[in-house]
Specification:
Layout (H helix, E strand, L loop, with lengths): L1 H23 L3 H18 L1
Keywords: Membrane, Transmembrane, Transmembrane helix
């Protein structure tokens, strides 16, 4: 159940990221989100 929610959140954030990139074309947001995502992955591995 929890995993399904996490997968849904990841998919929504990826779609949101893609739309933001198409709209603004700025990569700074993308880098910030990748950093957050990496941080989240590290937390998950613990």
């Amino acid at each position: 159940m929890v995993e399904e929610i996490l997968i849904g959140v990841i998919i929504i954030s990826i779609i949101g990221l893609w739309l933001e990139l198409r709209k603004s074309g700025s990569w700074s947001n993308h880098k910030t989100n990748r950093r957050i995502f990496r941080h989240w992955l590290k937390d998950k591995e613990k």
